[in-house]
Amino acid sequence: MKVVRIQEMENYILANGTVSIDDLCERFGVSKNTVRRDINRLSEKGVIEKVYGGVTATEKQLIPFENRHHVYNDEKVRIALHAASFIEDQDFVYIDSGTTTKWMFDDFPEDKSITILTNNLDVINAVSEKENIELFVLGNHYQVKTRSFVSISGLSLLNKYNVDKAFMACTGASITKGLTNADLHEYEVKKSIVQKENELFLLADASKFGQSTMLTYAPLSRADHIITSAPLDEAYEEYCKTENITLHIV
User: Fold this and answer.
1) What mean pLDDT do residues 130-134 have?
2) Quick one: average pLDDT of 49-62?
């Protein structure tokens, strides 16, 4: 029913922040004309704003970051725990901010001694009492909406660290637009991390693919591994093969 679809579309946009028209067409199985009519209704309601190629939730309607883990929660946990299995003894890893990476250390083995660099408050809390993990915190300004620390002026410190593996999140992942994020401060941190020589793991549930926001911090080809929750479209599977990206479905 139309009313049900529009309500589900509203919930989907509010949970994800920014989504493309193509993503809405695919997710709800309707034409672009139908999506445009639906988003006109939501725009009149005041819950979304139209942006180039898609829509974004208005700031007052956007689901708070701390509540977003309820959306696709089981998928996020599976992705995170699988990602953590790639961390080896003595690794120096970067853990990105996000609602997926926060779950990586729920059941981390005590016989692995590692070093973590992160700006993710939830990761900091999760490992703060683990004696086998040495922790370095990036950033000196705390952002409540993303539960992360950022500091554009301190990014030069990243040059001192030789990160073996980077576990990254994104707001959207697209073949054409790459790995995207909506926050300028987090964008600067992410961009600096992916420019370093490290093995990059992208942690993104299937709803993120085909979406994009205004800031691209890396091309999709920069990923060495993609860990996601469901099979991707054939175009993405072919892209991963062409770019030698290992795709993990968990």
Assistant:
1) 94
2) 72
Element (H, E) at 203: strand 199-203
Average pLDDT (135-164) is 78
Return the SS3 of 196.
Answer: coil
How big is the chain, counted in residues? Answer: 250
Q: Residue 207 corresponds to which tokens in the numbers above?
A: 């709803």
Could you please report the per-residue DSSP string of 66-92?
GGGGGTTHHHHHHHHHHHHTT--TT-E
Cβ neighbours of residue 235 closer than 8 Å, sequence gap 6 or more: 175
Single-letter amino acid, residue 46 = G
Instruction: Output the pLDDT for position 118.
Output: 93
Residue range 71-96: mean pLDDT, rounded: 89
Residues 149, 141: contact at Cβ < 8 Å?
Answer: yes
Q: How far apart are the first and last CA of the chain?
A: 32
Residues 95 and 77: their CA atoms lie apart, in Å, by: 15
Taking the whole predicted model, whether its pTM rises above 0.85 is answered as: no
Closest CA to 168 of 117, 223, 214: 223
Alpha helices, H only, 116-208:
121-127, 184-194
Please state, in angstroms and rounded to a whole number, the distance separating the CA atoms of residues 235 and 25. Answer: 16
